[in-house]
Amino acid sequence: MKDIKKLLEMRKNMKNRRPKFRRQGYGIYPRIGDEWRKPRGRHSKQKHQSAGHAKKVKPGFRSPKLVRGMDKHGLIPVIVNSIVNIPLLKKEEHGAIIGGSVGNRKRLILLNELKKHGIKVLNLPENHDKKIQENLALIKKEREEKQAKKQKKEKVSKKETEKQEKKEQEISAEEKGLQEKKEKDKLLTKEQK
Length: 193
Known about the structure:
Blueprint: H1 2-17, E1 76-80, E2 94-98, H2 104-117, H3 128-192
Parallel strand pairs: 1-2
Helix pairs in contact: 2-3
């Protein structure tokens, strides 16, 4: 463990001294980004490592092998997407990274389970579970308000339909009366002829 702490400190110092490896000509041509590409030109000064030109990527700039891939606390990051993965982790060796595709509800469950097991979460702050709970409460409240509005509209629409049905019944009763009158009139007119 002491070796790992020393190596982590050494890696930190090495990273501070390590140059930014940028692609040749990135400052000259706007189309060239600063992400690293190996220089391949025959007369390239960067390829031949001439003085005053940018450094080239070499194995000597790499971090020590034992701490390669570890985070700053010396934990190996492991992506966790479900509760099934949690018992496989060791709290002294591993740090959890909750997957980006995990939703808030499941994320809250995973955070609580990781706390029970004493495993550190590397990609979220400590109070993140409270923020998730607040967001879920807001979403729930909004959903309830929408349902309440929808129910009110349904009640109003039911009342309106009932009113319309009553009007239709009244109209139909009046129409029946009118039809009967017309039939009587027809009969009377036939008799008179």
